[in-house]
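Design request, tokens follow.
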């Protein structure tokens, strides 16, 4: 179980998306603690989706891919605001037929 006290390591790709899309590490933690796993991968990774509050009480969904290979901390491999072209609303399921 992931909690705000869990040790997290934010990788460069997650930082790039955060800077570009206007969220930060605290939003990534909020998304995985309050959200849920929507996809699991074979390489000890999971995709979380959670709703987070940005400034001015604006709420958005955030996707965070976490890796559990390290015994000490959970890595945020990447994080991003889901593209509505690729994801249903709310963005828990990929669209089957993308335009």
């Amino acid at each position: 179980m992931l909690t705000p006290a869990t040790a997290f390591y934010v990788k460069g790709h997650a930082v790039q998306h955060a800077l570009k899309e206007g969220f930060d590490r605290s939003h990534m933690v909020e998304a995985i603690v309050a959200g849920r796993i929507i996809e699991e991968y074979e390489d000890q990774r999971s995709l979380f989706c959670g709703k987070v509050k940005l400034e001015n009480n604006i709420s958005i969904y955030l996707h965070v891919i976490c890796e559990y290979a390290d015994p000490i901390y959970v890595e945020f491999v990447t994080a991003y605001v889901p593209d509505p072209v690729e994801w249903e609303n709310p963005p828990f399921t990929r669209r089957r037929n993308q335009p």
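Comment from the thread starter after seeing the answer: thanks! The helical segments are 12-21, 25-34.
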